[in-house]
Amino acid sequence: MSHSHSHSHNHSHSHSHKDLKGRNLIITIFLNILITVAQAIGGIISGSLSLLSDALHNFSDVLSLIISYVATLLSKKKASVSKTFGYKRAEIIAAFVNSSTLIIVAIILIKEAVERFVNPVEIESNLVIWLSLLGILANGFSVLLIKKDAKVNMNMKSAYLHLFTDMMASVAVLIGGILMKFYAFYWVDPTLTILIALYLIYMGYDLLKSSTRVLMLFTPNTIEVQQIVSAITKIRPVKNVHHVHIWQLNEDEVHLEAHIDFDEDINLSEFDLILEKIEEEVYHKFGISHLNIQPEYGKCDSKKVIVQD
Q1: Dihedral of CA 74/78/83/84: which sign?
Q2: How far separated are the first and last CA of the chain, in Å rounded?
Q3: Which terminus of the chain, N or C, has less C-beta within 10 A?
Q4: Does the structure show a pLDDT above 50 at 8?
């Protein structure tokens, strides 16, 4: 068995960037705790369900941000004898948990809003307006803080989506508050709640799907197994490639494991040279940075590309 890491793979994340990501998350956690408490109290005093549902929404955010923060810390921990991959999957699990809660909260919001249509309630709108403004400011600031990290990291993207939908929810609550204050349009509130909730489900589902793919060890969408097999088979004296497994460890690392049958009985030093060619090929063409190749000559095993162990 030869296991190799492509040496041309450079890590672009500097440590200062990682620490900044953690610090930004802590700031957003505290801001969200503040909004949640203010909106929950305000919702009870004013009798506004939209404020209470916004507080619930924010509370789910606090939880998801804490999960994201812990995952960020864990993903930095080094591998050990009992955990040979370290905690590299922590952030993917966080994205999975966050996107699931996003969908659950959205369904609760829809249920509440439907009940609101049936029994409209008069609301103390001034409090609703002020507290929704607080929500917009705090969430808007949080969104700006973690926007950059959200582009490159699934876990931070889930936190970003939570915060962004929160900000939109607060905008909706503000509009609702203004319409209730001046026109007594109490139906606006549940209508906007339903629209926000549907958006939450749509965004959450996408993230749930991509994090599930990684957790289930599915081959990444961008990689065609057959193309890799063809590329490796072109290298002499490779006879065939079989027993292939390709999976994503986390967002940065793709692993490939395969058995390679050779035309001739080569020695180890020759195999090392061929391995280097294979590494170059799969890294540059397919972005696979970790290889595990089992060389074979005249061995009687299944020559199918995908073999169920």
Answers
A1: positive
A2: 17
A3: C
A4: no
DSSP state of 218: P
Angle at which helices 268-286 and 225-233 pack, to 10 degrees? Answer: 140
C-beta separation of 244 from 229 below 8 A: yes
Is the C-alpha dihedral spanning 45, 49, 50, 54 positive or negative? positive
Tokens of 299: 């061995």
At 247 the three-state DSSP class reads strand
Which pLDDT tens digit goes with each residue over 13-45?
444 455 666 788 888 889 889 989 998 898 888
Helix (H) or strand (E) holding 175: helix 154-183
For residue range 207-239, what is the model confidence (pLDDT) as tens digits? Answer: 899 899 989 989 888 888 898 888 888 888 888
In whole angstroms, what separates CA 264 from the centre of its chain? 46
Q: Give CA–CA dist 11/20, Å, rounded.
A: 17
CA dihedral 196→176→134→157, nearest 10 degrees, is 10
Query: Please, which residues have CB within 8 angstroms of residue 268's CB and are 6 or more apart in sequence?
Result: none
3-class secondary-structure state, position 220 = coil
DSSP 5: E
Query: Considering only CA atoms, which of 184, 181, 187 is closest in space to residue 132?
Result: 181
Question: Are the beta carbons of 2 and 269 closer than 8 angstroms?
Answer: no
- Per the structure block, which two tokens stand in for 187? 């139906």
Is there a cis peptide before residue 295, judged by omega within 30 degrees of 0?
A: no
